[in-house]
Specification:
CATH architecture of the largest domain: Beta Barrel
Structural class: alpha+beta
CATH topology of the largest domain: FomD barrel-like fold
Oligomer: single chain
Radius of gyration: 26 Å
């Protein structure tokens, strides 16, 4: 039985990237329509070709490994995201654009030291990119959100003017040129669109025409109608911009959501994909950082002749891990920042027992412990696949322990060459000679909860972990050190 979409609307969804098969299955079960599908998806699901423009696009994030970007019409995006979260059982961190990209809004300018800000309403001020001396304090002008804030460190930027976006074409401030989406690669399509664009762009003063990716499927007559429609809307928006009060939205723009899938979410999507084609458990984790998937393709071809999917998947992971002498550690912060903590020596690398060793450079202090970091210090890391924490034990060059740092995170994954997880901000630390462990960065963790980034389901697990790890920090440190000494020394 198909799942029922929350909104009940038959939205058109375009899907690209490593999750395409699993997401396509979900999209069809939810009653949405897949548009502009790849040949693989058309054949895999036996669906009709439909090249109409999407309401929503789902693709791999260009910013966070393993994450999804969902963008498009705001109502449709919210509907799709809500349904996706239900399917992956809230096993994801969510960042939403604070203002839709390309929104056109009437703003109020403020000037400080020759720099412009523009108040766009809702408590938000954007950096206004404009020539010096162009505006004064209190000027009321239409602006375009040229860059929105999704992750906290993103800058919210606006430019003066108006623009119009239809499903196929954008009319944007410019020098009278015809532009193309980078996804329009077909030569004949570009020539048709160029011919139509040149016919109209000369009639515009201070604007350029940009063809959006869906325009590659238009005929010449359809393309002409789209530009004429856009020109009518442009005239309406320009007229409204001169009469509207501050903070009036003249064009809504596109909402953007980044969905940071954790290890459990990826396993759930593995299971969805397995309902379509044979899929090992760990498929989407393995593909997180890889372009060449020939080995995975071969393994899954063999899986089609095996009745024990779970056992086959475990053995594949064991074989992957047994061939590594060094691994990278990829630490993804909740704010989308991707940190590569360097490459560690493998002491032991098995699904249920991971022990790694890193050599530290002298200078500074050990994280969270306030203990000087000296040349020759070592960091021993113990965890296992699926574990929601990593135990780090810091020792000096003679293996005398200095302290324990326990990182709380989403389930640990192995991508084939790297340990990967999403940090959840809060950690437990203990100096070796101290009687008590302490919790650090709890306020940062709570801030993510208050922003709606960390779901209540993840929060409940973290709270239980904090209590358990605080009580057992020293024992976990001793066990980790003991393993390293047994396997390595």
């Amino acid at each position: 039985m198909p799942l029922n979409p929350v909104g009940g609307d038959n939205y058109r969804v375009r899907i690209r990237g490593k999750y395409a098969t699993a997401v396509s299955k979900l999209v069809l079960d939810l009653g949405y329509t897949i548009v502009q599908a790849s040949d693989v998806i058309i054949n895999r699901f036996n669906i009709a070709i439909n090249n109409s423009a999407p309401d929503v696009t789902i693709k791999d994030s260009e910013r966070v490994p393993g994450a999804l970007t969902i963008m498009g019409k705001c109502g449709a995006v919210n509907d799709v995201v809500n349904n996706l979260l239900r399917v992956v059982e809230d096993e994801a961190l969510i960042w939403r654009s604070i203002v839709p990209l390309h929104r056109v809004v009437v703003g109020v300018v403020s000037v400080s030291n020759g720099n412009y800000l523009v108040d766009i309403g809702g408590g938000y001020k954007a950096v206004l990119k404009a020539p010096g001396g162009a505006y004064n304090n209190g000027d009321v002008i239409p602006v375009i959100i040229s860059r929105t804030r999704v992750y906290p460190n993103d800058e919210l930027i606006a430019i003066p003017g108006v623009r119009v976006d239809t499903e196929y074409v954008s009319i944007v401030p410019g020098s009278g040129t015809v532009l193309f989406s980078r996804h329009i690669r077909d030569y004949e399509s570009r020539q048709v669109l160029l011919k139509v664009g040149l016919k109209y762009v000369g009639k515009l003063s201070g604007y350029s025409i940009k063809w959006r990716s869906s325009a590659q499927f238009l005929t010449e007559n359809e393309a002409s109608r789209e530009i004429e429609k856009a020109l009518r809307v442009l005239n309406e928006v320009n007229s409204a911009s001169k009469l509207s009060a501050p903070y009036t939205v003249l064009q809504d723009g596109e909402c953007i959501v980044e969905v940071m899938l954790n290890g459990r979410a990826k396993l759930l999507l593995d299971n969805v994909r397995n309902n379509v084609v044979p899929t090992i458990m760990g498929h989407h984790t393995y593909k997180t950082l890889r372009r060449n998937t020939a080995l995975l393709d071969m393994v899954e071809a063999l899986l089609g002749h095996c009745n024990d999917r779970a056992g086959f998947s475990v053995e594949f992971m064991k074989q992957l891990m047994s061939r590594r002498y060094r691994v990278g550690i990829i630490h993804i912060r909740p704010n989308g920042e991707v940190l590569k903590l360097g490459t560690a020596d493998v002491v032991k690398l098995e699904p249920d027992d991971i022990v790694l060793l890193r050599r530290l450079r002298g200078g500074g202090y050990l994280d969270g412990l306030g203990i000087p970091k000296e040349e020759g210090d070592l960091a021993i890391t113990c965890t296992s696949l699926g574990s929601e924490y990593l135990t780090h034990v810091y020792v000096d060059s003679s293996w005398r322990p200095k302290g324990v740092y326990i990182n709380i995170n989403t389930p640990v994954e192995f991508t084939g060459a790297n340990i990967l997880y999403i940090d959840l901000a809060v950690d437990v630390v203990k100096r070796w000679d101290s009687n008590e462990a302490s919790v650090i960065d709890y306020d940062e963790y709570k801030a993510y909860i208050n922003m709606g980034v960390i779901t209540s389901k993840l929060r409940d697990r973290v709270e239980q972990l904090i209590s358990s790890l605080t009580a057992n920090a020293h024992r976990l440190g001793e066990n980790c050190l003991s393993k390293a000494e047994e396997y390595y020394r």
